[in-house]
Amino acid sequence: MKLSLPKRKSKQGEPAPAEGDAVAAEPELSRSERRARKTAAAKHHSAEGAKDVAGWVDSRTNATGIYTALLSRHVPKGTNWFYTLGSATMFIFAMQAITGVFLAMYYVPSTTQAYASITHLTNDVWMGEFVRGMHKWGASLMIILIFLHMGRTFFFGAYKYPRELNWVIGVVLLVLTTVMGLTGYLLPFDQRSLWATVVANNITASGPVVGPYLADFLRAGPEVGATTLSRFYALHMMLIPGLIGALIGAHLFLVVKLGTTAPPWVRGTRPKGALDEQSVPAGVPSSDDAEVPVAASAAATDADPAATESAAEPPADAPADADEPDGDGDGQRPAAEPDEGEASA
Ligand code: HEM
After folding, report:
1. Does pLDDT of 312 surpass 80?
2. Which domains does the chain have, with CATH numbers?
């Protein structure tokens, strides 16, 4: 699209446009019109420039496909603020990772220097106290948010088929998040963190079967001391964040693949245009009728010989993903096209 720029006023010393000239024939524009045209042209050019860069990156990464899959999804009607708790947890995890990197620039993982390095960071380093505070309060906030998110998925029934695996991944994430809290608490190596770790280690040792072995592994020696600090540091800085990052990836993959569960109060309503249960041909698999009643399929076969084929495989006009779990977890077969029953994320 070509946008014409506003006609330039002739300045002093410049030759005035000749009479009969096409430009001269244009009506004189008001100041606001000229400004509007200029803004439109500037917007157009910046958008085109951004498109070129985005297109270049996209043709090499398929970033738009990933973006569309992650963010441009259909979500069930009735989705509300409770559905942001998972993303809020993820945001806090990202904040913890970022602030943790800055803390690691000053922290020394040694029993003799750990406390001094943290005191130096808090008292002498620019913004050190603020970043440390963010990391400390962020840890508590993440635990609170993760529990709230877990509560949301529990009370909305999002742990049921086909999302059980995502629930299990969530439980592992919860455990790993608490381990982050435990391992991080020892790092300042002051009296409070030392004795809190001794207590936590004794509690772990009292656990059934694996408890004593786990406590031995974490303590890394007969007493909580230098080896424990090194071990907790490695777990806190590398292993656990890596695992959490990978599991969040798997968790989100399943969220995108399986769709979002509708709120319980929306579930009963049938999406507009959804197939009537009676008119669904026998043999089309569905999550709520695990077995096709023999009588139903036999009756269909009697009535129409072509139905023998339809009992074995879905008819050509059935939705392509008829055997896939439904997108909104309402146990209903999804309508071929999203309609008013869904809103776009
Ligand atoms: C680091 C911790 C976690 C992060 C970053 C995280 C992130 C997310 C996000 C972004 C979503 C999609 C949006 C939403 O429904 O809120 C989600 C969905 C889900 N999460 Fe988590 N989550 C975490 C922990 C957990 C825990 C502890 C559980 C349960 C034990 C859990 C179970 C689920 C389930 C079942 C869904 C699917 C919800 C649905 O289909 O409606 N998550 N999670």
Report:
1. no
2. 39-72 (no CATH), 84-261 (1.20.810.10)
Query: What spacing in Å lies between the alpha carbon of 204 and ligand 1's midpoint?
Result: 27
Instruction: Specify the DSSP element, H or E, that contains 53.
Output: helix 31-61
- Pocket of ligand 1 contains residue 261 by CB under 6 Å: yes
CA 191, chain centre distance (Å) = 38
Q: What are the tens digits of pLDDT across the range 213-254?
A: 999 999 999 999 999 999 999 999 999 999 999 999 999 999
Kindly give the distance from the C-alpha atom of residue 237 to the centroid of ligand 1, in angstroms, as a whole number. Answer: 23
173 lines ligand 1 (CB under 6 A): yes
Q: Is 76 in the pocket of ligand 1 (CB under 6 A)?
A: no
pTM for this entry = 0.69
The model's pLDDT over 140-180, given as tens digits with 9 standing for 90+, comes to: 999 999 999 999 999 999 999 999 999 999 999 999 999 99
Q: Output the pLDDT for position 54.
A: 83
167 lines ligand 1 (CB under 6 A): yes
Cβ distance 233 to 187 under 8 Å? Answer: yes
Residue bearing tokens 């406590």: 215
Give the tokens for residue 234: 């490695």
